[in-house]
Amino acid sequence: MDNPRHYFLWDARSFLLCSVVFSFLELSLCCPKECSCEHLLVNCTDRQLEEFPSGIPMDTRQLILTHNNLTYLPSVDLNLLIDLVYLDCSHNILGNSLEATFIAMPLVYLDLSHNNITKITSATFYLLTSLVVLKLSDNPNLEEIEKDAFANNTGLRQLDLSRTALTYLDVTTVSELPSLRTLGLSSNPWDCYCPLKDLLKWVMESDIYFTDEENLTCTTPAHIHGELLKNTEKHINLMCFTNLYERDYIFLMLVGFVIFGSGTVVAWITGVCIVIYDRLCGTSEDDEDEEDEEPPPPPKPKKKEEEA
Ligand SMILES: *[C@@H]1O[C@H](CO)[C@@H](O)[C@H](O)[C@H]1NC(C)=O
Ligand SMILES: *[C@@H]1O[C@H](CO)[C@@H](O)[C@H](O)[C@H]1NC(C)=O
Ligand SMILES: *[C@@H]1O[C@H](CO)[C@@H](O)[C@H](O)[C@H]1NC(C)=O
Ligand SMILES: *[C@@H]1O[C@H](CO)[C@@H](O)[C@H](O)[C@H]1NC(C)=O
Ligand SMILES: *[C@@H]1O[C@H](CO)[C@@H](O)[C@H](O)[C@H]1NC(C)=O
């Protein structure tokens, strides 16, 4: 430590450290002009924002962007917020699938309700492994959620998919979430035909809490329009299983007919063959018989001629 070089190094290090700390302080002290910031919470509610606000402190833990006009979230800016656990982007006009938007954040709460999201793929939320609450309700153009869309969100306790355009959802998308307690599926135009039967069965048997259950109904087919998903067992049994048996019977009958038909044809051909064979063999035998009956040419006269 007596060595002046050490002093110099130490000074340089502390200077660097100080400037880093200072710039961090500066970053955390500043606040986007459209927002209010306090205690690691940045609130930009209802400011007619069309772009993600710049200059959000890097140590922000809660970010509220609700009731704005955001059409997209810039992944780079968003993922600089490495401490962000709470993000409310409800009531905007975010579109598409938001793939590659969320990368490095420890998000626990994510609200994307009341937007214009059209599709959720397996790459939308797969890196948000800390998620506990996810709200996707009131996205009127959300038509598709891929089967393994939430496969990595194993901590998910609350998931809201109400009031979207979903007609179908693969049951494993939700049934294999080990922590799920509350699920919103209501007021979607569910197409309660046989492809949905596994989800319907799961809704009947699951002990999860379904929000707004009186609006958890089928839209199609027409004869069970407005029926609660929970009360569709009879229809599903009639529609899917009995029909299957009927189809099986028809199939079996067809197979029977085919076997019967081909059997008849085979029998007929065999018969014809036997007859033809019989005829052919019969004539040849007759020929042989005729040949047999023909008296062999007597050599004797020749001998006699020779003798003569
Ligand atoms: C955010 O700000 C709005 C008004 O600008 C206010 O109504 C709301 O309560 C605030 N939210 C929080 C969590 O402080
Ligand atoms: C933002 O959207 C609202 C409706 O949601 C609209 O009334 C307003 O004009 C929009 N503002 C801008 C700046 O586009
Ligand atoms: C919502 O998305 C649909 C389909 O991508 C598009 O046609 C429509 O214009 C969008 N609505 C808004 C308000 O951006
Ligand atoms: C889950 O996340 C990890 C990274 O945290 C990733 O490597 C893996 O592919 C993800 N699995 C799925 C099914 O998306
Ligand atoms: C069910 O939906 C109707 C209209 O779609 C709505 O008026 C009603 O409030 C909903 N029920 C609940 C409990 O939200």
Automatic annotation (TrEMBL):
Q: Which UniProt keywords apply?
A: Cell membrane, Disulfide bond, Ion channel, Ion transport, Leucine-rich repeat, Membrane, Repeat, Signal, Transmembrane, Transmembrane helix, Transport
What GO molecular function annotations does the UniProt record carry, in alphabetical order?
A: potassium channel activator activity; transmembrane transporter binding; voltage-gated potassium channel activity
- What is the protein's major site of localization? membrane
Location of this chain's protein in the cell? Cell membrane
Ranges of compositional bias, category Acidic residues? 284-295
Instruction: Work out whether the entry's keyword set contains Transmembrane.
Output: yes
Q: Which residues form the LRRCT domain?
A: 188-241
Quote the PROSITE patterns the UniProt record gives.
Answer: LRR
- Ranges where the record places region Disordered: 284-308
Question: Quick one: signal sequence residues?
Answer: 1-30
Pfam families, per the entry: LRR_1, LRR_8, LRRNT
Any one GO CC term of the record: voltage-gated potassium channel complex
Q: TM spans, by residue?
A: 249-277
Highest taxon of the source?
A: Eukaryota
Q: Where is the LRRNT domain?
A: 30-62
Q: How does it assemble?
A: Interacts with KCNMA1.
Q: What is this protein called?
A: Uncharacterized protein
